[in-house]
Amino acid sequence: MVAHEVICWDCGSKIEDPFVNTCPRCGGLLTVKMDLEKVKEMRPEDLRKAPLGVWRYAPFMPVDPANKVSIQEGGTPLYPVKALGKEIGVENSFVKFEGLNPTGSFKDRGMTMGVSHAKELGAKVVGCASTGNTSASLAAYAAKAGMKCAVFLPSGKVAMGKLAQALFFGAKVLSVDGNFDDALALARKMADERKLYLLNSINPYRPEGQKSVLFEIMDQLEYDVPDRIILPVGNAANIWAVYKAVTELKEVGWIDKVPMLTGIQAEGSAPVARAFASKTKDFIPEEHPETVATAIRIGNPVSGRKALHAMYSTGGFCTTVTDEEIIKAQQLLGRREGVCVEPASAASVAGLKKLRETGVVDRDERVVCICTGNGLKDPDTIINNCAPPIKCGNSVADVERILSQ
Ligand code: F0G
């Protein structure tokens, strides 16, 4: 295990109690400070004996690999997307397809770290609030670890595939009257009363695993740093995790340039994008977030301030896209590249398109869009936005007639 300490991101206090989720002194957000002195003597090649995936980067992680609870997460493809890039006007574009993780989203990267740490602490019951993917992932890793699991979901707004996964893996699935923010408030209360170990991304060990997406992108691009990385922002931890990974690679001297980190929110659920537009360090929560991209339907993002810091300090950007732009981008990715992502993930591609059109992104930039989840998570949205199956008689002539139309 690499030496590390948990500290308050706001006041810098060292946190001794492993079961708190905010700073007991100032109420601030927590983060892990890694001691990377030993890594400074290493080179990226030294890690390449291990397969591409989260645990290849163990020297950057705060959990002992001997305790790992793993379902072989990470190691997802980085597709060059020439046809899509041509259509959007940024030919040198890539898609990092996180939908090919074990439970179909990037959450598995954070969950392998979070649940492994829970095991180190001897936790018996784990829990989280979720718009769907976090709960699917936690349910799977809790099953693998033999822990009891409770997930708190906003009633009625969770995509079918995600709900099916949480039920399937044997979690206690609790449907909370309210939205994600209400569900998280309840899960946090349970954690504060020590009834469960909380594995939302407010737990600083979660982003530590999520850093691996950036490490993989750098490995896959042979450490030739892209100009920009674009990702959807919901509860806002993933963009923070990517930022943390960038700063750590810089600290050990493996990169000397920083990609412009660019966050995309849905127009109906955009507290971070609105704060960015008014150049503030903090955001104003939204009461009634709404979007077809239910994964990022969040009005009070826990890591919103960290996300803003990540974007400001890398010269990045933040903007919104409409539900219509999200669905169009989702379909474009499918029809041009054969990649099926869920609506929240398509927000990154919709954002790239918008930022090219508005001139924020240059034609010759090298851009990576992180597509966070698999399209099969939310088949209803796909079916609602595709033409229905075509009725066909039992004859070759009938089929020929249809194909010629
Ligand atoms: N994309 C997908 C597919 C997600 O599920 C989420 C978050 C995000 C993007 C945003 O990431 O929150 O780190 O900014 N889903 C959480 C969940 C909230 O409960 O599954 P973020």
Description of the molecule:
By secondary structure, the protein is α/β, with parallel strands linked by helices. The chain has a domain at 78-104 and 206-384: Rossmann fold (3-Layer(aba) Sandwich). It contains 14 helices and twelve strands. Strand 6 (148-154), helix 4 and strand 7 form a beta-alpha-beta unit. Helix 2 packs across helix 3 (133-145) and helix 8 crosses helix 10. The longest helix is centred in the first third of the chain and has 15 residues, at 107-121. The chain is globular and about 75 Å long. The model has no long low-confidence stretch (mean pLDDT 97). The structure holds ligand F0G. Ligand F0G is lined by residues 105, 107, 130-134, 201, 232-238, 295-296, 342, 344-345, 372-373.
